[in-house]
Amino acid sequence: MVGPALDGGYYLLGMQQFSPSLFEDIPWSTDAVLATTLARIRDLEQSYFLLPELSDIDYEEDWEKYGWEI
Description:
Elements (H helix, E strand, L loop, with lengths): L1 E3 L5 E4 L19 H11 L16 H5 L6
């Protein structure tokens, strides 16, 4: 399952078996992370389920938007 983030990345990537190649050569910190990851999943002939699109937490300010303290 993949939880797409509003910024083009993802907030969750769940899998039944760990697949390290999903994390190789990904353009991290860009809006292409999700699309690249989904293409990689398809290339591996695996399936995925998309969760609702949500905001992820990249920085302390993102965390604070929810009123939570670190």
